[in-house]
Amino acid sequence: MMRLPKFEYRAPQTIADAVKIIADAGPAGQFVAGGTDLYPNMKRRQQMPKTVISVMRLAELNQISGDGKSGVNIGASVTLSDICEHPIINRDYPVVARAALTISTPILRNMGTIGGNLLLDTRCNYYDQSEEWRRAIGFCMKRDGAICWVAPSSPRCWAVQSSDGAPVAVASGAHVVLAGPRGTRRIPAAELYHNDGMRYVTKAPDEVLVSYDLPPVGAWRAAYQKLRRRESFDFPVLGVAAWLDLAADGTVRDARIVLGAVASYPMPVPAAAEALVGRRLDDATIGAAADAAFRPAKPMDNTDFTLSWRKEMVRVYVQRALRELASS
Prior knowledge:
Strand order of the largest sheet: 4-5-8-6-7
Order of helices and strands: EHEHEEEHHHHHHHEEEEEEEHHH
CATH architecture of the domain at 59-119 and 160-214: 2-Layer Sandwich
CATH class of the domain at 59-119 and 160-214: Alpha Beta
Structural class: alpha+beta
Strand content: 15-25%
Radius of gyration: 20 Å
Distance between the termini: 48 Å
CATH topology of the domain at 59-119 and 160-214: Uridine Diphospho-n-acetylenolpyruvylglucosamine Reductase, domain 3
Shape: globular
Helix content: 25-40%
């Protein structure tokens, strides 16, 4: 049985207190919300904080406000189950609720938070193993080693971004709010991520994710399609978020296509968006966008299924997402 290492647990009541505690703890401190990602990582000795600071009791992080006309503010500690069941999110931002519903199981959605999913650690078959297994093959550069076993000659880590919420956040043009010792900042969700398996977010270790802000709906619609081995529980081996701004006659005025689980960050595909703008969503347009998304997608051999088949599925799942929007 894998056991948690010893650590000090702190539960601040305000954001200011949380920021002070992390500043005092330094690099040995880490924030936790639902713990569905951090605690398994600690059991595998992938992360070893000496001080764990819970943000679940922070009132500001547990609220949902606004609507589709003004935009919605979702606190980072709102659980995935609450998002799935929230009437305004289901009415005005159904793609957010449906993406959350694909995450794991009901029990874990009751614990896991939207902030935790947006900040989900990158995954890799060589990394997400017990400490004994990783020691047996030689540790990878993501933890304790100096080599990426996916691409041994590479100077960087190729662990993949496997969040379901992140592609939707980037595609929808959402923003996130971060608070830390240097103050508060609000950035586009797209700027939260790095294409690097180790340095996968731009959030500083001493910053706490405060909120996830969705823009007013207007004329846009979005869809999310997920590929995984089992239809429940599993992480995505491919995620496709499609966002369209449609004119009254059905012409695409603006578009964003974002791929998840094919890189170390939620990967926008501008060429696929360009194939849609100025056109209607007919079979030819959808096919052209799917082809454009297929070309830059380069899945690595570090997750489920063969990488060549996963690449082929990019076409299929982009088409599915766009056909869902064409029929809605």
